[in-house]
Structure formats: C-alpha cells, structure tokens
Amino acid sequence: MTLTTRRTWRATRTLAPVPVPRPRRRYNLPLLVGGTLVVVIAVAGVLAPVLSPWDPTAIDPVNRLKAPGGGHPLGTDRLGRDVLSRILFGSRIAVVVGAVAVAIGAGTGVTVGLVSGYRAGRVDAFLMRVVDGLMAFPALLLAILVVAALGPGHVQTMTAIGIVLIPTFARLARAQALAARNQEFVIAARALGASDVVVVFRHVLPNIAGPLLVQSTVAFSGAVLAEASLSYLGLGTQPPTPSWGGMLQEARDVLFVGPWLAIYPGIAIAAAVLGWNLFGDGLRDLLDPRMRRGPR
Amino acid sequence: MPFVVRRLVTVVPTVLVVATVTFVALQVIPGDIAQIMLGIDARPEDLAQLRREFGLDRPLLVRYVEWLGHLARGHLGTSISYREPVTKLVVERLPVTLSVASSAMLVAAGLALPLGVIAARRAWSPLDLGVLAGSQVGLAVPTFWMGILLLLWLAAATPIFPLQGYVALSSHPLDWARHLVLPAVALGTERAAALVRLVRASVLDELTRDYVRTARGKGLLGSVILRRHVLRNALVPVLTVAGLQLGYLMGGTIVIEQVFGLPGLGRLLLQGIYARDLVVVQGAVIMIAVMFALLNLAVDLLYAVIDPRISYD
After folding, report:
1. Which ipTM was obtained for this model?
2. 3-class secondary structure, B209
3. The whole model's pTM is what?
C-alpha cells in the first residue's frame, strides 16, 4: 500500500498531470517584436544616407582598426571604413536581396504550383519531378552551384537564392490548389465560364494567400541568411559594396586585432533573421483562427 | 521486393537528377568554358588542348552521355588545378565532412532532446518560454557567425580547442575530437534550435493521448511512461525532421569548414569555385548531394527500429 502511494506520488511528481493548454494573450508578441525589428531594419536601409555618420566606402588609413567610440560608434575596419555606416548600408543589401529573391521564388514557385495542382495529370507529374530534382540538393549547395555557374555578384546571388526558394513555394501552392480545385467556389466560377487562368489567379490564389504570405516571411529570413552566407564565402555581394556577410569575411583576417568587426555585423544578421521569423510566426497566429489571441 | 532494395532503387533516379542538374548548370553557363577555366590570359593552344581534353568541341548531349558513363564507373574526371583525379580528392575529404556533420547532429540531438522534453513537461512555464525564446534566437544566429564567436571566445582564450585544421581519427582520436568540438557546436546549436521546438511539440502532443492516461492510471512511474511510451512515439516525427536536417548539415558544413579551415568537401568545392576548376566543383557537388540522398535513405530505414508499427514487408 505504502509502495503504491509512493509510486503514485512519484508519478505525479515526475510527469505533469495533463499538459496545460496554451494560455491566451492579449497581444500578439511575436508580431509586435518581429514587426518592429523588420521596420527598424527597413527604415535603416532607406534612411542609410541620412543616418550614416560616414561614407561607407571611404577609406581612411589614419583611422584603420579604431575600436568603437569617439567619431566611430562601432569602430572602423582595416581600411579605416566606418563600421556603423557599413552596417546601415548593408541593411539595404539584405532587404533588397531578400525582397527580390522572395519575388523570384514565390513568383515562379506559386505559378508552377498553381498550374501543377489545378491542372493535375501529366503537367503535374512533370512539374513536380522538376521540383523534386531541385529539392534533391541541400539548399545552400544549390545556391552555391548556381553562383558557381553564373559567377559571383549581387544579381547572381538574388537569382540563386530565388531558385532555391522555388520548390517550397511550388509544393505549398500545389497542395493548396489541389485542395481548392474541387471546392464549390471554383466549380461555380468554372460553370460561369471563367477561363483556367481567371479561376487560378482570381479565385484560387486569393483563397490560399494566407499560407503563402506566411511562407514568404520565412523565406525572407532564409534569403537574408543565405545572402550573408554566400557573401561570407566570397560568392555573394562583392566589395566594396557593404554587406553584412562580406563584412564578416573581411573580419576573418583581423579577428583578434579587431573583434568588433566580427560582432556587430553578426548582430545585424541575427536581428534581421529573428525579426522576419517572429513576424512570420505572429502572422501565422493572426491568420489562423484557432490560434487567434485576445481576450476571451 | 524487400523494402530496403526498393528504397535503394529510388536513390538511382535522385542521383541521376542531381547529376543532370549539376551538368546542365556547369556546362550551359554563359561564355566559353575553356576560357572561364583557364582565364582571359590563356594561350590559344592551351585553350584548344583543354577543349580537346574535355571534349568541349563535341555536342552537349554526347558529352552528357559520356560523362554519365564515367560517373557510373566512379570517374569524376581530372582536376586542372590539383592535377589529380577528382574521385581521389573527394574520397580523401569525405571523412572530414562526415565527421563534422555527424558530430554536429550529435550536438543538436544532445541539446534538443532533453531541452524539448523538459520544456514539454513544464509547458507554458517560464522555463518553457525561455527554451522557446532561446530557440528563436538560436535559429536566427548564422552558423558561421557562431563559429567566429567560438573562435574568438573559446579557441583564443583556452588552449583546449585549436583555432584551425583537422587531424584524422585514425592518427590521433583525441586530437580529432578536439578539432571537431567547436565546428560541431557552431553547426549543431542552430539545428538544435530547430529540433527543440519539434521535440517539445511532439512530446506535448503525445502527453495528451489516451495511452498516457491509461499508463498513469495503472500507476506507472512518470519517468517510465515518458521513456518507454511517450518518447518512442514522439521520436518518429523528430527523426524524420532530423534526417532532413542531416542534409541541411551537409550544406552547412560548407560554411563551417571555411570558418575552421577544415579540409572537407565544402572547402574543396569552394577552392574549385575560386580556381574556376569546374571538374572539381562538379565532383564535390555530386558527392555532397549523393551523401544527402543516402542519409535520407538511412533515416527511412531507421524508422522501423524506432516505431515497430511501421512495417517494410
């Protein structure tokens, strides 16, 4: 008897009785924090010429490797360029690469996915095999392969990341289009004589816009990270254009002399990725009625 | 046909697709391939010799079929920068990449499993919210930046971890482990951040199931319920994602090898790109992608061990 009681006590002690449901919160914190970070980075990019204390590409041999402080709040690099100004201008690259890559990935992927899911049959089988082929590569490897073929550079990086993003969007759009194609609003539109293009883009697409929007924010953070990785490897944005990944690459040779060069650009990348990830999470909660927060 | 054989057969089309995409990407590039490989200052006779050597003067389709034939026999061509067979270069570097990827996976699993289980057991407590917030930050930190910070704070400050390089397992096991710790932590932490959320969600989901209530009702110890029942069920989706993440790690090693100066496949690939040695690039890309396919296969085969409900007969 004693043993049973003791066991029961231990059981309740080591395992929570029943998992508590997710508490409702008044505010969508991820959306607020993520949205703030995203807006701050976008504004920093737009207002970079106004906010930057120095020209981001101006070389100043006298002030090379100056520690943070004084006229250079985040220090200078080995060519004497101001780190803060380069980070501010680097946010432009991050935002532009992210936006263009997502536009390429989502534009192509969603079109392929919608056509594939809506038409089904042989078109679907062929397009999905192509998508499977792209998915057979680890994402970064595929991006590197495309850059190896096109050559390093800003535009090539955007194209490479855009291509890498295509399969995810295609798969998502296809699954949503497959689910939508036999729903009544689609059948009704078809019965009214709407063409396939009209049905797909005017009726199916708006109905699946929510998940695609959330995916776009996640893809954006992935694109920022991929651009930074490619630039770090010397394959992305080329010097002297300031990019966060490129700044970390330049910091490699003077890592122990100027550690600040390796710290601040990394914080900028992490903040941007965190911002877009949180924004996506918040957006998903907002668009999902089951997860909607607020007072009961 | 047994499942293992059937599943092995499915790797063949994947490899074929990978090979084709790689070939097309690197052979249909804008400009003259010979000029790209030898540079703009190359002498016309060198260009002509390279074109002859690589069959660049023949139709693309003929080259493709011939190249596939070589590939099937394990010949990846001869590197123009190393003057050695690419197969040899790739095989030499494969253990380094596999060591980094597998030790990173070990770090990821070692962090994600206990943290995910603890977070699930104390769902929505400050500890759980801390784990969730930590995983968001972990996902946002680029692996190469993490590597740089580790170099800065650990490798430079302590004599335990070397700054750069690699020692083979066969020559000195302890040194091998010392060289792998920081790359594995840099690469594994980010994957742990992704896995921990899944472990937590999966365990939380299983804890609400009827069989847990039954087990609890018959007086089983909480730790026994967790270990023998909940974890076995919760690990199936975790393993699927972990398997996919191994592929991600194969990609991630490319950057980490560069940070820590590890002579693996990723570094070979980058050196190939820097030296415009397309034969090396082709070989390294195919090898990494094939390893990705084989790792996914291994994960598929592992399912049955973890979940006996999955039968492959």
Report:
1. 0.88
2. coil
3. 0.88
